[in-house]
Automatic annotation (TrEMBL):
Residue ranges occupied by any Protein kinase domain in the UniProt entry: 211-427
Subcellular location: Membrane
Keyword entries, A-Z: cGMP biosynthesis, Glycoprotein, GTP-binding, Lyase, Membrane, Nucleotide-binding, Receptor, Signal, Transmembrane, Transmembrane helix
GO-annotated molecular function: adenylate cyclase activity; ATP binding; GTP binding; guanylate cyclase activity; peptide receptor activity; protein kinase activity
Membrane topology: Single-pass type I membrane protein
Membrane spanning stretches: 139-161
Record field: catalytic activity: GTP = 3',5'-cyclic GMP + diphosphate
Any single biological process term in GO: receptor guanylyl cyclase signaling pathway
E.C. number: 4.6.1.2
Pfam families (UniProt xref): ANF_receptor (PF01094), PK_Tyr_Ser-Thr (PF07714)
Gene Ontology, cellular component aspect: plasma membrane
InterPro entries: ANF_lig-bd_rcpt, ANPR/GUC, Cyclic_nucleotide_synthase, Kinase-like_dom_sf, Peripla_BP_I, Prot_kinase_dom, Ser-Thr/Tyr_kinase_cat_dom
Organism: Cinara cedri
Stated name of the protein: guanylate cyclase
């Protein structure tokens, strides 16, 4: 048509889509107008002309033009793909609007971005607006990381501070005692028993211990008693135990044991004042309990204990052992009646605990002769196979046995156990 009317031939240059659409629109209007006039209509009847455009198919400059019942053009589309080798767009598929189908061009394939061989999903994984992915903003991540670093540094600093504080306390050796500050009491003339109560040769009014403790004490047989050496330290009368060693090697485990003993305070545990570690003067200083030990009370036939006093002593043993097991000492290791002493207020306190590195030496351990060492007696009465089985028990089990035997000795003191004895021992 361009050649015939205007003597112009289109080459390979692209024609504007606006021009082709305008041409097809004018052609559609002409076809609808001719149909309206052919049916007796008027060129001024716009409604009739528009109605004639609907449901029409004709060939335009861009190919087949299809108009649906709403007056909309059913468009066809071509899918162009750039060949990465030639950098040219090529038609690889056509969408036919009338058929509503996509037809691929034979021998052509789509080059997907990123080396993919399959088309990407219709909807991105996180959605088009990233609403399906709960991402944390960068500043929030930075804040969390910095907070964690601060917390870790704080915890590490706390542990380091506690470590150096402990080491400083161990190095300070607050338990260390100068031998010049100890005033020894000569053994002769001041024979002091850790296991006897106040002695009176002439008992004026014998009665039970709850009425008058002084009236119960009779003449003691010193051959059956264990005496503790005493001394004065800074105005306080203390029990002094001389170690059969010329000197002590102060390593960290021993220093830590001394520190733990120094920090241990309880109403039913003997207080540890400190230790002297000077050469040839190695000794331990603990609280002095003038009323003697539980062994004294048990072996003295002149003493008659009422049940209220027995209950008080048993309560003191239990409270002391509970606190000892919950402390850093963890366990006693050799509980017996001679280790249970009574102070001036008739409060029972547990002694001879801790410092296992010193007490583990046979020369430093107290003799168990004439003492109620139930834990040792129970062990020595077993044959070797049973001893091997006993060693498998936890240490707390052995200490519980010793505690129960101390309670048993109190309950059966007058050879008349109460009816609820076995119920108590089974706890």
């Amino acid at each position: 048509m361009a050649k015939e009317k205007f003597n112009y031939t289109f080459g390979n240059e692209a024609v504007s889509t606006s021009v082709t659409a305008f041409y097809d629109a004018v052609l559609l209007y002409g076809l609808a107008l001719n149909q309206t006039l052919a049916t007796g209509g008027n060129q001024t009847d716009g409604a009739a002309i528009v109605k004639a455009m609907w449901n029409r198919t004709f060939t335009g400059i861009t190919g087949d033009v299809n108009i649906d019942s709403n007056g909309d053009r059913i468009a066809d589309y071509s899918l162009l793909d750039m060949d990465p080798k030639t950098n040219e767009f090529k038609v690889v598929a056509n969408y036919i609007g009338v058929k509503q189908s996509l037809e691929y061009v034979p021998g052509m394939s789509i080059h997907w971005a990123g080396g993919r061989t399959t088309p990407p999903p219709d909807t991105p994984t996180c959605g088009f607006d990233n609403s399906k992915c709960q991402t944390i903003p960068g500043y929030a991540v930075l804040s969390i990381v910095l907070s964690l670093i601060v917390v870790i540094l704080f915890i590490a600093s706390l542990f380091i501070y506690r470590h150096f504080k402990l080491e400083a306390e161990i190095a300070s050796m607050t338990w260390k005692i100068n031998y010049k500050d100890i005033i020894r009491i000569p053994s002769e003339g001041f024979k002091t028993s850790m296991m006897s109560l106040i002695q009176r040769r002439n008992s004026q009014r014998p009665s039970v211990i709850s009425d008058d403790i002084g009236s119960m004490i009779s003449q003691c047989e010193y051959g059956r008693q264990m005496f503790s050496q005493t001394a004065f330290y800074k105005g306080n009368k203390v029990a002094l135990k001389t170690l059969k060693r010329s000197r002590l090697e102060l390593k960290r485990p021993l220093l830590l044991e001394f520190k733990r003993l120094k920090d241990l305070h309880h109403d039913h545990l003997v207080r540890f004042y400190g230790a002297c570690v000077e050469a040839n003067y190695c000794c331990l200083l603990t609280e002095y309990c003038p009323k003697g030990s539980l062994q004294d009370i048990l072996e003295n036939d002149q003493i008659k204990l009422d049940w209220m006093f027995r209950y008080s002593l048993m309560h003191d043993i239990i409270k002391g052992m509970i606190y000892l097991h919950s402390s850093d000492i963890r366990s006693h290791g050799g509980l017996k009646s001679s280790n249970c002493v009574v102070d001036s207020r008739f409060v029972l306190k547990i002694a001879d605990f801790g410092i296992r590195s010193l007490r583990g030496n046979p020369e430093e351990s107290n003799s168990d002769s004439d003492s109620h060492a139930y834990w040792k007696a129970f062990n020595t009465q077993l044959d070797p196979p049973n001893k091997a089985k006993l060693m498998k028990f936890h240490l707390d089990t052995c200490i519980a046995f010793s505690s129960r035997m101390c309670l048993f000795s109190l309950l059966t003191y007058d050879h008349c156990p109460p009816p609820f004895l076995f119920a108590i021992l089974s706890l």
